[in-house]
Amino acid sequence: MNFNFKEIATASMVLFAVIDILGSIPIIISLRNKVGHIQSEKASIVAACLMVAFLFVGESILSLIGIDVNSFAVAGAFVIFFLAIEMILGITLYKDEEPESASVVPIAFPLIAGAGTLTSILALRAEYYVENIIVAIVINIIFVYFVLKSSKKIERVLSKNGLSVLRKVFGVILLAIAVKLFATNVNQLF
């Protein structure tokens, strides 16, 4: 086992910033208001399963279509870069249609385990040991679960301004991570 606290902490921060569950609180609140109840446990478990499955099977899928992990990591760095730009500038470069029901599908995927999260997991796989990434996924899913359970309380405590500041801070962190990910993996391509 290659457990490393620094890798776990970094991977946790990357996933926390990409999942952006605090920034998704307004979406969660509107879903809860529309349908009355969000299945927090089910959504968290399904998202965790998707993320861990992609951690192990994602590389095989890539090799099947002829793409190496470093190329995917560079592409992931671009995705993370644009997510960070959205968070920092408060603009929307890409917008999914708003889900109509608060079942596992709109919450677990794509809200929690969306394209950015899955891309980040494979990009992390290029740099870190699998067991550290799994621990980071579990840490984030536990946090996601508590946020889903107490989203109304969090909204009252942080207010719109607090959520906005938090989102911008994590956007800057995500931007720095995207640059590092690009710099680390682009050399492997040549």
From TrEMBL:
Top-level taxon of origin = Bacteria
Membrane topology category:
Multi-pass membrane protein
Chief subcellular location: membrane
Bilayer-crossing residues are 12-31, 43-66, 72-94, 101-123, 129-148, 169-186
Keyword Membrane: yes or no?
A: yes
Q: Where in the cell is it found?
A: Cell membrane
InterPro entries in alphabetical order = Multi_antbiot-R_MarC (IPR002771)
Task: List each coiled-coil range.
Answer: none
Which keywords does this chain's UniProt record carry?
A: Cell membrane, Membrane, Transmembrane, Transmembrane helix
The record's family statement is: Belongs to the UPF0056 (MarC) family.
Question: What is this protein's record name?
Answer: UPF0056 membrane protein
Which source organism does the UniProt entry give? Croceitalea rosinachiae
